[in-house]
Amino acid sequence: MHQHARIFLAFGMGGLMFPQLSFAALPQPQAPSRGEGSNILQTIQNWGFDGFMLIGLIVLGVMFLGVAWHAFGVYHEIHDGKKKWRDLGATATVGVGILGVGIYLVTKATGIL
Prior knowledge:
It comes from Pseudomonas gessardii. This protein is mainly α. It is built from four helices and no strands.
């Protein structure tokens, strides 16, 4: 038997002999940001609100990465002589505008929920 197999077997046997050592104290689940609600349906709706908030944040993160990716591309093309610095300024201005509109829309959408 290899030494790694012996070590694995020893830890496995220790876990079987002393199960209280192998079980971690897991944290309790957190309540939704709007509270648990008075019934299960309200609690599920509150969890849905948190889920949509997370999706909105992910969408905004992807938007930010897209704007940054495009800006880096324009910066690279400046050094290749294909674009000018004003193109990078226009990209940054339009990118900030797009991100502002995205943040506004996500904020309004979460207010509707």
